[in-house]
Structure formats: C-alpha cells, structure tokens
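Final report, Chapter 2: Outcomes

The project's central promise was a pipeline that accepts a single protein chain and returns its three-dimensional structure in a standardized token representation, suitable for archiving and comparison. That pipeline is now operational. To close this chapter, we reproduce one record exactly as it appears in the project archive, with the input sequence first and the structure output second.
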Amino acid sequence: MMKWEIVIGLETHTQLLTHSKIFSGASTQFGAQPNTQACAVDLALPGVLPVLNRQAVEHAIRFGLAIGAQISPRSIFARKNYFYPDLPKGYQISQYEIPVVVGGQIEIVVDGQTKVVELTRAHLEEDAGKSVHENFVGPHGEPASGIDLNRAGTPLLEIVTEPVMRNAAEAVAYAKALHALVVWLGVCDGNMQEGSFRCDANVSVRPMGQSEFGTRCEIKNLNSFRFLEEAIQYEVRRQIELIEDGGTVIQETRLYDPDLQETRSMRSKEDAQDYRYFPDPDLLPLVIHSDWIEEIRAGMPALPATLRAQWQSEYGLSPYDSQILSQDRATADLFIELVRRLGAKHAKTIANFIAGDLASALNRSNLSVHELPIDIAQIEALLNRSLDGTISNKIAKEIFIFIWEDALANKPAISIDEIIEQRGLKQITDIGALEALIDGVLQANAKSVEEFKSGKEKAFNALIGQVMKASQGKANPQQLNELLRKKLQSG
C-alpha cells in the first residue's frame, strides 16, 4: 500500500467585534429579524459609497501584533467579483495583493509536542448575506429559498495559514488556539453557533516523499471543532480511496454534512483569476502610521504565552496549571486578581481552587468564568479562612458549594464568617479536644490499631478517617496526623 501525506491549510473567517459594519453604520447585532439591519450601503443601492470602519482596522492591527506579523503601512481594498443571490453588489470588498497583516505564527501543542503554524496573511473584508434553504416556503407554500442581508457588510478578518498541518488533530489544535487568541484580544466574541468564527479547510493528499502538492478541495463553513475534525478525516479517506481506485481528485468546494458525517460537492473551486480582482475605486488605500501601531501595542493585554512563562517562573506553577489558567482571559484575570489579594505565596492554592472546585461548579452549572455568579470577595474570604486554619479544606469545599447554590438561586449573599459561625464549622485545633477524639476512636477500633502496629499503613489512614468523621470534618488534618501517629507509636 502506498503511504500518503496529508496537507492541510485553514482559512478562518473571524467576525470582528464592532457595533457597526465595515463600510456602513448599520448594526452588527445578531438575531434581528431578517433584512432589518441592512442599510442602503449594504444593499448596494445606486450612488452609495463605502466608508471604512476604524475599529475594524484596529482589531486587525491588534491581531497582527499578537502573532508577530508585519503590519502593512499601506494596504489596498479590492473587488472580488462573483455572483450569488446573497451578495447584493455582485462583488465582495476584500483585500488581495496587499493585505493589512502579513505573516506571523501561532504555536500549538499536539500530543505533548509543540509545533509552529505559519500564517500567510490576515486581510479585512465584508461578509456576504445568508441564503436560507431549509424549512423555507414561498408565499403560496411552495419550496423556496430566502435571502437575509443582515449579515451583509459585517466586518471579517480572514486569517490564512500556510499548508503546514499534517493531520486533523493539528488543524483542530490550531483552530482552538486561534479561537482562544482572538477572544483573548477582544477582537471577536468567538461564538461559533452564531457564525462569528468559521473555518474553511483546504485538504489534499500526496504520496509520501513527493514535494509537489496534490489537488486540494476546500470544505466550507465549519462552525465547530468537532465538525472540522470529522470533515478533514472523511475528506482524507475520500481522496485516498479515489486515487487508489484510479480516479482523480477534482479541485472543488465541498460542504460537510454532520448528520451523514461526509463531505459533498458544492461547486467547482475558483482560482484567484476567476474572481477578477481589481482595486476598489470607491476606497482609498488604507495607510497605517507607526504611531497608530504603537498606540495599539501599548493598550494590548498581556498574551497567554507571556503569562504562562511569568507564572511558572515567579510562582513555580506547572506548565499544566499555567495552561489551564490561561485558557481564557476571564480565568487569567480571576487568578491574577486573587493572587493580588491573597499574595503570591498562595498562588498554587489559588490555582488548585480555580482548576478544581471552581471549574467543577462551572461545568455543573454550564457557565463560563465571565458569568461567575458569586462575588470575588467571597472567594477571597473563603480561601483566607482555609489558609489561616479557621476551617479545613473539606469544610471549605462544603461552604463553596453552599454559597454557589445560593448564588444560583439568587439568594442574598451571606459572609463567609457568618456561615462559619452560624454552622459551627470552625476547625478544631485545641490539642485536648483532638486527643479526646483520638482516644475514643482508638478504643473503638482495636483491630485497626493492631494492623498499624503490624506495619499496615492503610490502617493509619482508616483511623484518620474515623477521627475526621467523629469531628464532622472539623479536625485540623496536620495536627490530627501528628497526634495520632504519636499516640500509636508510643502505645
């Protein structure tokens, strides 16, 4: 059997987070009634002229700086000519020869191995409208298609990679890393269900060792990471089987059907010359001065890679912990704020809380960190009482669940100290009280005492559990451990 090499490049349409469209003042808000957010410019009515949205350009510059790309001092808008019912002008305003962002790279990790994905470009363009085919009927109940132009003119940053990915896992890792970055930077809300982040996968195969690329097929509008992976895996199998059966891969655009888990032909794939690009005569070249770039650079947040290196160096966090804490901006901000309040020496405890108790609560409630229902001051107070020994870790977990459920039920918040006082949850640290508990457990568990003395360490853990049960989880674990071992060894 011939061995095949897979070649993948991704084009990602990232909807920029602006209030108005890229060339008009119409709203970009999602979910409005069809055709209520398309103004004269979006509809291409005679005599209208486009005006470039400054914020869209700033978002493109911010992204370019984050990936270490070159920001073009002068870039051109062009007309990309094609005819489709949801494209009112008969052309799309895009960038071709000189994009606003050139080059750059994004680092991914797959199976513990780091790989750098080089980017070709990122260019600004307007989105098309939306054709509605399913469950749509005409005025007399006949099957029909509808056109919704609300999305027409929405600002996009199309981000194009080099064909450097070699399997679906790498493509998904890149898409996830890119998604996290654009959301982190605040240039895109990342809502894939609403179409804010859509991937087109260019897939081809070639015999192992061959330098020439095979014929590629483009799979359009993949709006979930699972669909991206499934579509690539199917398309790779399809192309290899086709070639091995004596067929030829045709360059075309394909769609992925998630129900059937297969790609199907949509239309023949155009080349650049088919679009007849030429500079848009209604738009002047986009000139970006260096002082504008530096102004944007000064206002950028610290990037995830920078924070991970800092946390590992200053706080001694593991790469895994650092990765969890930098998975999104809200989580990182929460960690940074709690470290500021509680002190750097407690960074590991804070990291464990965020990755453990908090992550579990968020998953159970189907919430994200930026939707945190409890106040950060309550989290600070809870961690403080655990750190200063007022309550045990076990009790802290129980209190956290209690305040979380109260918050979800919109009940008035109660201070952590009040909860501890009202429920009698203070940790038992009095040596006399602890010794009394231990003596009672030793008398009632003579078998476990004998097993410990015969060298069975598991018996010690069983005795610890019995004392904790007798104290209702309030015994200080460290003191309990020391006192119990001392009594067993001296007896």
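Archive annotation: The chain has two domains: 4-292, 431-490.
This record, like all others produced under the grant, will remain available to the consortium after the project formally closes.
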